[in-house]
Every structure is written in C-alpha cells, then in structure tokens.
Amino acid sequence: MFWVHAHFIPNASIQMKVENPSFWDKISLTFNSLVIGIGASLIAAYMYSKLT
C-alpha cells in the first residue's frame, strides 16, 4: 500500500509514515473502505436504474 501514500501524500508525510506506520495504515484502510463503499453504491445505483 506504500505506493498509494506516495501518490497522495507529500514527501514529509512519507517520512512520518516510516516513523509511525500504524497511523497511516488506519488512514489507508479508511481511504480504501471509502473508495470501495462509493464504488459499490455507484454500481448498485447503476444496476437499479437498469432494472427500472
């Protein structure tokens, strides 16, 4: 998951990630679950619109 941090967070924060990984692991888990939730709801809305 390090590449995600590298893309979204500046270099200074990457230093912090190395020192405090659990904090960034929680953020990445939250970010991933948000993305998955949004994707799932979009798919559900699309399927629902196709049915009606």
Tally of discrete structural domains: 1
Give the helix/strand class. mainly alpha
Total number of helices: 3
**Silhouette:** rod-shaped
Q: Beta-sheet strand percentage?
A: under 5%
Textual characterization of the structure:
This protein is an all-alpha fold. The chain has one domain (about 10-50). It is built from three helices and no strands. It has helices at about 1-10, 10-20, 20-50. α2 (about 10-20) crosses α3. The chain is rod-shaped and about 50 Å long.
Sum this structure up briefly.
Keywords: Membrane, Transmembrane, Transmembrane helix. By secondary structure, the chain is mostly helical.
Topology, please?
Blueprint: H1 2-8, H2 11-19, H3 21-51
Transmembrane segments: 27-48
Keywords: Membrane, Transmembrane, Transmembrane helix
